[in-house]
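Re-run with default settings, no changes from the original entry. Doing this only to confirm the output is reproducible before filing.
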Amino acid sequence: MEAVMNVATMDEVRLKDVVKIALVEVFEERREWLADLVGEALSDIAFGYAIQAGEQTPFVSRDEVFKMLEAA
C-alpha cells in the first residue's frame, strides 16, 4: 500500500514540474500570444461591465442615438 502512495506522490511531483516548465516556456517564448490572451480577457471583462452598466440605465431609442451621433 505504501508503494502505491509513493508512486502517486511521485507522479504528482512530476506533473507539477511539467506544468511549471510549460508555464515558464509560455512566459519566455510566447510573450505575444500571452499578451493577446490577457488583452482579450481584459476586453471581455470590460464588455461585461459595460453590459451591466447599460442594464441599469433607461432605454434610449435608435433614433435618439443617431441624432446624438450626427450632432457630434
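The chain has one domain: 2-71. The two ends are 76 Å apart (CA to CA).
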